[in-house]
Design a protein that fits this description.
Blueprint: H1 13-17, E1 36-42, E2 48-54, H2 56-59, E3 64-69, E4 100-101, E5 107-113, H3 118-124, E6 127-132, H4 139-144, E7 158-162, E8 178-189, E9 198-203, E10 209-212, H5 218-229, E11 236-239, H6 255-267, E12 271-274, H7 277-283, E13 287-298, E14 304-314, H8 325-331, E15 341-349, H9 364-382, H10 386-393, E16 402-403, E17 409-410, H11 415-426, H12 428-441, E18 445-455, E19 468-475, E20 481-485, H13 494-506, E21 513-516, H14 534-561, E22 568-571, E23 576-579, E24 582-588, H15 589-595, E25 598-605, E26 613-623, E27 629-639, H16 646-665, E28 697-699, H17 718-734, H18 749-758, H19 760-764
Parallel strand pairs: 1-12, 10-11, 14-15, 20-21, 27-28
Antiparallel strand pairs: 1-5, 2-4, 2-6, 3-5, 7-15, 8-13, 9-10, 9-12, 13-14, 16-17, 18-26, 19-20, 19-25, 22-23, 23-24, 26-27
Bound molecules: pterin cytosine dinucleotide.
The site of pterin cytosine dinucleotide has 35 residues, from helix 13, helix 14 and helix 16.
Length: 765
């Protein structure tokens, strides 16, 4: 019986639940003995010219080994933005600010102390003198330059544009019977992983640097870090300890990581750093942060014929991956719908706020939120049921790739079936009946039902020739096996699933297979984990390597058994080759490994990205007197093709839904007009805990892709993509009969209450 598709328990968990993980701050390697502890002095002002930074008093403080300012690091290159061809290099972030600070939290100096607890006190003694400049906080102000420029030498705050705004068709909505337009906000959120950022660095006598950093792909981290340190990547070894969540924000490396490495080199002794929660909330890249103008038009019968999406992306103070998010948003703009005329444009701007990076879904949740809000606005305007409007406009089932007007090639999809399955599982008709009953009765607590149909892109890759990943599989003489993978799990369970994939081929029990990742000396190449690429590329590479290993083993077994390779059958139960019809004549893989090393490394080259899809139904209750919404149910269909381990895929859906619902309800990074962060602690930055969410109802659907032999697409981000608009739509739906058409994210009680007050019914009341 196949192990694939079964609920194998996570092999990672016994360790996590007993002895616990070993995170970067826990690493007790002897190379780190006597490490100095780095503490960053950060700008308290959003935008200012630096007059001076005086570290002399700090240097004299107890336990201080050294203190450095931007001038000390002046020779090092800045953190180059990704895709440097598109972005003005002058907007790159220096490792420590020298002339100007551009966000609250930007590192301006470091102190290095004997004891980690001495750093914060010593940092207080650093005397930084600032000349405040006007802070540009609102992206609209940034776009028109009315409050000044962050980089006067660049002549603009616009870092990148996507699509040609001048070419927007003035007649796009001509002939539409109904047109609705609205500005909506996809708010800035903080990734807030349980483990904050950290680093530990030690230079060896051979001149090589070893750095322990929590990351999503050691090889990418090595490249980015080496560039900032101006060293040959070959002289840098990245080791990835356990990672306590990343959500997109631990890809590559940040200036702080480079500074810690530089400090270690400068002092000739190891250095380490672990940031506080407060630092994490202002220092780690944020996510989302789009303002969107959506315009949708069509016929009164609910047919959508035209759609326009205009995006203003807040990139924060220095363009990082966030500046490119609109590219993905535009690619996925029409979602799962057949809209004959659609166009989308975007501008990314710099503001005096924390830089924006990737956050679970990275660009695609923003596309789904926009079109799903548009669909509901259109349904309300035409007086149609939101489910009916969606069903009318969804692309019909397709099994051959479908190219959209935006250049995405959807591999396979059955969007109507996904919607219908979600509606059936939710009991949509009876929910609407219950809603009608409460509305007729004028109940204070009203029921809201929100829908979101989605299609997203996973495993996208910019590599020439297509996305790829490598894996090696080695069988040992004792019959166990080791897998080396270029992916980098941080909660996704690759150790379990990669072992399942090899076990399926090689007949070696899962618990005898070790999976290794995240050490660049051991695994020099790898694409890491992000964009829900890992199973469809890295997992498939493990399967491919296992199969190739069997090919090698067959030849060797044939020689050993003096038989023709074609006459051998592989018997997984014994992990051995047998001569067909003569089970006595057999040779186990372990025996072959004892005779000669049995190892295969391979690269899987994917034909392209895959496009998982689904439908979410959220049910909320809203108190119409206070605006407070409570999440009652979330029912989802998330079709990621063939599922290899339903337990892990469901875990990913659960986590994603909770995260997506939290964006709809309450998460938001807030700045005041001067660029001061108002959400720099968990007292002010709320997220959902298990007590605030119901048990999610997950319906199954699997439309395999032909792009890999497993038929698998990605599942890691689906929850965040469907849940946010479904919950937002549900909250609005609960008060739609009062005339409310829209509530911005997060739909906090205050916003809902305000919307009711300002609605037609509220005004009338
Ligand atoms: N899987 C499966 N069948 C499928 C698809 C996936 O059994 N058809 C399983 C895979 O084997 C894997 C897991 O589900 O164990 C997720 O696989 P995949 O969809 O390939 O996604 P990745 O492993 O590449 O994970 C990346 C994704 C992203 S982009 C973010 S952000 C994210 C997420 O995963 N951040 C997370 N999930 C997270 N989960 C935790 N706990 N912490 C994070 O920081």
């Amino acid at each position: 019986m196949s192990i694939l598709g079964t609920r194998v328990l996570r092999t990672e968990d016994p360790g996590f639940l007993t002895t616990g993980g070993v995170y970067t701050d826990d690493v007790a390697d002897e190379r780190l003995a006597g490490a100095g502890h780095v503490f960053f002095v950060r700008s308290p002002i959003a935008h200012a010219r630096i007059r001076s930074v005086d570290v002399s008093a700090a240097r004299a403080a107890p336990g201080v080994i050294a203190a450095f300012t931007g001038d000390d690091l002046a020779g090092l290159p800045p953190l180059a933005p990704p895709m440097p061809d598109t972005i003005d290099g002058r907007m790159a972030q220096p490792l420590l600010a020298r002339d100007v600070v551009r966000y609250v939290g930007e590192p301006v100096a470091v102190v290095v102390t004997e004891d980690p607890y001495q750093g914060e006190d010593a940092a207080e003694l650093v005397d930084a003198d600032y000349d405040p400049l006007p802070a540009v906080v609102d992206p609209a102000d940034a776009a028109d330059g009315s409050r000044g420029l962050l980089f006067p030498e660049a002549g603009t705050n616009v870092t990148a544009t996507f699509g040609d705004a001048a070419a927007l068709q003035p007649d796009l909505f001509d002939g539409c019977e109904v047109v609705v337009s609205r500005t909506i906000v996809n708010q800035r959120v903080a990734p807030a992983p349980m483990e904050t950022r950290a680093a530990a660095a030690a230079w060896g006598e051979d001149g090589r640097l070893t750095a322990w950093i929590p990351n999503q792909g050691a090889q990418e981290t090595r490249g980015v870090l080496a560039a900032m340190l101006a060293i040959d990547p070959a002289s840098l070894r990245i080791i990835t300890p356990d990672v306590g969540g990343a959500f997109g924000a631990k890809f590559g490396a940040d200036p702080e990581h480079a500074v810690v490495c530089w400090v270690a080199g400068q002092l000739g002794r190891p250095a380490r750093w672990a940031e506080t929660r407060n630092e994490n909330l202002v220092g780690m890249t944020h996510g989302r942060a789009q303002r969107q103008v959506i315009t949708i038009g069509g016929r009164r019968d609910g047919t959508v014929t035209a759609y326009r999406l205009e995006i203003l992306q807040d990139s924060g103070a220095y363009p990082r991956f966030g500046a490119f998010l609109p590219m993905l948003t535009i690619l996925m703009a029409p979602g799962p719908y057949a809209i004959s005329r659609a166009e989308a444009v975007a501008r990314s701007v710099v503001t005096n706020t924390t830089p924006v990076g990737a956050y679970r879904g990275a660009g695609r949740p923003e596309a789904t939120a926009a079109i799903e809000r548009a669909m509901d606005l259109f349904a309300a305007e035409t007086g149609q049921d939101p489910a009916a409007v969606r069903r009318k406009n969804l692309l019909a089932r397709f099994t051959e790739p479908h190219r959209t007007a935006f250049g995405a090639v959807y591999d396979s999809g059955d969007y109507v079936a996904a919607l219908d399955a979600a509606l059936a599982a939710a009991g949509y008709a009876s929910l609407r009946a219950e809603q009608a009953r409460r509305r007729a009765a004028g109940d204070v607590i009203q029921l809201g039902i929100g829908l979101a149909s989605y299609v997203e892109i996973t495993g996208a890759g910019a590599e020439a020739g297509g996305p790829r990943e490598n894996a090696s599989v080695e069988v040992h003489p004792d019959g166990s096996a080791t897998i080396l993978t270029g992916t980098s799990p941080h909660g996704q369970g690759h150790a379990t699933v990669w072992a399942m994939l090899a076990s399926e081929e090689l007949g070696i029990p899962v618990d005898r297979i070790t999976v290794k990742w995240g050490d660049t000396d051991l695994i020099p190449q790898g694409g890491g984990t992000g964009g829900s690429r890992s199973l469809q590329q890295g997992g498939v590479a493990v399967q491919q390597a296992s199969r190739e290993l069997l090919g090698v083993a067959r030849e060797r077994a044939a020689a050993m058994l003096e038989a023709s390779p074609a006459d051998l059958v592989f018997e997984p139960g014994r992990s051995a080759f047998e001569v067909a019809g003569d089970p006595e004549a057999a040779v186990p893989l372990a025996t072959l490994a004892a005779a000669e090393r049995l190892m295969v490394r391979t690269v899987f080259l994917a034909p392209g990205a895959t496009f998982p899809f689904g439908a979410h139904v959220a049910v909320v209750e809203v108190d119409t007197e206070t605006g407070k919404a409570v999440l009652r149910r979330v029912v989802t269909v998330d079709d990621a093709g063939t599922v290899i381990n339903p337990l892990l895929a469901e875990g990913q859906r659960h986590g994603g839904i909770a995260q997506g619902a939290a964006q709809a309800f309450l998460e938001e990074v807030i700045y005041d007009a001067d660029g001061n962060p108002l959400t720099a602690s968990f007292a002010d930055y709320p997220f959902l805990s298990a007590t605030e969410v119901p048990s999610f109802e997950l319906a199954d659907m699997a439309t395999p892709t032909s792009y890999n032999p497993l038929g698998a697409k990605g599942i890691g981000e689906a929850g965040t993509i469907g849940a946010t608009p479904a919950v937002q739509n549900a909250i609005i739906d609960a008060v739609a009969h009062l005339g409310v058409r829209h509530v911005d994210l997060p739909a906090s009680p205050q916003r809902v209450w305000q919307a009711i007050r300002e609605s037609s019914a509220g005004k009338g009341a």
